[in-house]
Design a protein that fits this description.
277 residues; Carbamate kinase; 25% strand
Length: 277
């Protein structure tokens, strides 16, 4: 890692679930860092695989757009089953397998396990459909408000690397779909991480998506709200997650590229979009 010091505080890495992400490269780098003594928590998504499986099962994904322009997956009970198959099933297992093959004693967890990620289920979701605001009530979604740091510390202090995915646990004990970027932000704040690295299939925050030459290398926390005006699609939630992480005490959030070798190391060295106070 050249002359950049390795972190001694926990490092939280969120790797997205969009098409084009190279999980082998991410796991190569994660394993190398863990072997060097970096305490690491890996959080992952699975949106692309969920869409593919939904189509195969004859239940195409349905997205809701909030009045503020944020998109989220409409999650009825059947969609939640598909979601769990992909996130807590296939992808979590395969990422843990990759890390185990690289000598990392990884443990796969959903946010439901041990109430690792907990928050209230939303009684309704406000969405814009055909130009009108409507309330969607049969939706199993929520927002993480509490992290079981005792469980994470127990694992990390005993040499395990947590690999975490949604769903989370509602306060009533139900499985709920939560946004992975915002969940990672809550985890990073809760365990005292200095850095949260959010990897996706773009090199960072782009001023004119999808033109990668418009990468913004640095942005201040105070400017994040203005970034919502040009952040496209899923990037809006990542910007929101970054804002919540820094508000929770995380020193730095980096958006970076999950398609390149050593994606985590490159991000730690400031390659991507660095967000800080």
């Amino acid at each position: 890692m050249s002359d950049h010091p390795l972190p001694t505080k926990p490092l939280v890495v969120k790797v997205g679930g969009s098409a084009g992400i190279n999980y082998d490269l991410v796991c190569d780098d994660a394993a190398a860092l863990v072997r060097q003594g970096v305490p690491l928590v890996l959080v992952h998504g699975g949106s692309h695989e969920t869409n593919v499986l939904s189509e195969r099962l004859g239940k195409p994904p349905r997205m809701l757009t909030s009045p503020q322009g944020f998109t989220s997956r409409y999650t009825d009970a059947e969609t939640l089953d598909i979601f769990a198959m992909v996130y807590a099933g296939k992808l979590n297992t395969r990422i843990v397998e990759r890390l185990q093959r690289r000598g990392v004693n990884a443990v796969g967890l959903s946010g439901l396990d041990g109430r690792l990620l907990e928050g209230p289920r939303k009684s309704s979701v406000r969405a814009v459909i055909d130009g009108r605001q409507v309330l969607v009530r049969d939706d199993y979604t929520g927002k993480v408000e509490r992290v079981n740091t005792h469980l994470l510390r127990l694992l990390m202090d005993n040499g395990y690397t947590p690999v975490i995915s949604p769903p989370a646990c509602s306060t009533e004990g139900e499985a709920i779909n939560v946004d992975g970027d915002r969940a990672a932000a809550m985890i990073a704040a809760a365990i005292g991480a200095e850095q949260l690295i959010i990897l996706s299939n773009v090199p960072g925050l782009l001023r004119a998506f999808p033109d990668e030459s418009t990468l913004i290398s640095h942005i201040r926390y105070a400017e994040l709200e203005s970034a919502l005006s040009f952040a496209e699609g899923r990037m809006k939630k990542k910007v929101l997650g970054a804002s919540e992480a820094i508000a929770g005490g995380v020193r730095q959030v980096i958006f970076a590229d999950a398609r390149i070798p050593q994606p985590i190391t490159n991000a730690m060295q400031g390659r991507g979009t660095v967000i800080a106070l």
